[in-house]
Write a structure and sequence with these properties.
The protein has five helices and 34 strands. With 465 residues, the protein is mainly beta. Helix 1 packs across helix 2.
């Protein structure tokens, strides 16, 4: 499979090939030695591969209506600091199967490489007793410079250097490298930028293991509208809202209105109406869902915005509690497994265009199922251990099939000043005075670029106070 390149011309060709062939390359990281890839297929055979840094691809196949586990090399589990531990999972035909990352404690839905970004805001389920924050950054086929501007209540010590709130850590990462840090303080609202697209993962560690872990959406793919289904016990679900813009108004169906400034966050639990929590924001926000009580570590996932809802996905059929969010009519939703069509019990959310469905997973001999719709839908998997969703559908997946325009002509799901800002290679923050963990690359910077950076960082400081 063709790997997405760094240079513009190579990137355009690879992106078009990627989409026309319906193949998908995912940049992934492993949070634990027992981590595995869950390959889930529908009615067709699926083929996929895993490529470790500096090694040839390892090829595998997935029979129809199956959910198979492929153990990832235990040595690839991230630990701390800079390591060579990111890897590629490639699916030859994403219309036939899906892949997920999974271990005994949590599961996550990976992002395709073209969906990665250069700007992220951090969020996780920190707050449970004896829980620490985990932040992992990963690269693929390029070197890049990364800047982390901390949002923290207490100071953080990394490689013998101490960083306070709003101070910046800068580092260089090589090809297929990861950087992992652990913090006793909550880092929600921390701002991460890079010179090239990266993957960012958020998690928590408790009792010596990473107990929750998910891949964050970049700012360019965040949305304004979100719908979260209610599980049996609404108090077990806590939603964290994190703003990426200046003064964001958030309207939650049921009468609650919030106002958040840049990188500010707010936690909310239990406010559901007709089996759903519906969020309408004036500007793009990041929503993450924590399950198990007051910010505990019983499951964590990034909430897909309505703008990224897929129209087809494949998931394991394991008797887990499965909830479906469907946009517009439910008459086109079809859930299928080996042996027939699965029934869905629907409930319309009043005064909205959404419906919440509960899947009946009984009496089917297969270990997987497919679900399709003419409109957008997403499946939430609530099990005793895992909490994850059935994936996303990104705008470039449609645009590249109908246009040969360069990638910058492809629209994204949301816009923020952070989507278009230049690389933050310099800053007036005190953290930058401490110097990078590894040697910084420097180059010519235009006066306009430097002025833009100063203005944006001034905005960050004023809005954080």
């Amino acid at each position: 499979m063709t790997t997405v390149g760094v240079k513009d011309s190579t990137f355009i060709c690879c992106l078009l090939s990627f989409c026309l062939a319906e193949g998908t390359d995912y940049l992934m990281t492993s949070p634990s030695p027992d981590f595995h890839i869950q390959a889930v297929s529908g009615s067709q055979w699926g083929t996929y591969s895993i490529t470790y840094p500096g090694q040839p691809p390892l090829e595998y196949s997935s029979p129809p209506w199956s959910s198979n586990s492929l153990n990832v090399d235990a040595n690839m589990a991230v630990v701390s600091g800079t390591e060579n531990k990111s890897f590629i999972v490639s699916v030859s035909d994403n219309s036939a199967m899906r892949v997920y990352g999974r271990d005994a404690n949590d599961a996550y839905t990976p992002l395709p490489i073209p969906a990665l970004g250069r700007h992220y805001v951090f969020s996780n389920c920190h707050g449970f007793v004896n829980t620490t924050t985990v932040l992992t950054i990963a690269t693929h086929g390029h070197e890049t410079t990364v800047h982390i501007t901390f949002k923290a209540q207490t100071n953080i010590t990394i490689s013998g250097l101490t960083y306070n709130n709003e101070e910046m850590l800068s580092l260089n990462l090589g090809e297929y490298q990861t950087f992992t840090l652990h913090s006793d303080t909550d880092l929600t609202g921390t701002w991460i930028t890079s010179g090239d697209p990266i993957a960012v993962y958020a998690g928590t560690r408790s009792s010596g293991i990473i107990s929750t872990y998910d891949q964050l959406l970049p700012v360019k793919h965040l949305g304004k509208v979100y719908v979260i289904p209610q599980r049996e016990n609404a108090n077990q679900n806590t939603v964290i809202f994190t703003s990426v813009s200046n003064v964001t108004s958030i309207d939650i169906k049921g009468g609650l209105v919030l106002s958040l400034s840049f990188t500010r966050s707010f936690s909310l639990g239990g406010l559901y109406s007709d089996g759903a929590l519906i969020v309408n924001a004036s500007k793009p926000v990041l929503l993450t869902l924590c399950r198990g009580g007051e910010l505990s570590s019983k499951g964590f996932c990034v909430v897909p915005p309505v703008s990224l809802l897929p129209r087809r996905t494949y998931l394991p059929l394991e008797g887990e509690y499965l909830k479906v969010v469907a946009e517009d009519t439910t008459s086109t939703v079809l859930a299928t497994a080996l042996g027939g069509t699965m029934s869905v019990q629907w409930k319309m959310v009043q005064n909205s265009s959404y419906s919440i469905g509960t899947l009946n997973t009984s009496f089917f001999p297969s270990s997987s199922f497919s679900i399709t719709s003419m409109g957008g839908l997403v499946v939430y998997v609530f099990s005793d251990v895992h909490l994850y969703t059935g994936g996303y559908h990104f705008p470039f997946e449609d645009a590249a099939l109908t246009s040969t325009a360069p990638p910058q002509a492809v629209t994204t799901s949301s816009t923020s000043f952070a989507d278009t800002s230049p690389n933050l290679l310099t800053s007036s923050s005190k953290g930058s005075e401490r110097g990078p963990i590894s040697s910084m690359r420097t180059g010519h910077r235009s006066q306009q670029s430097l002025e833009f950076e100063r203005n944006n960082y001034a905005l960050f400081r004023s809005e954080s106070n």
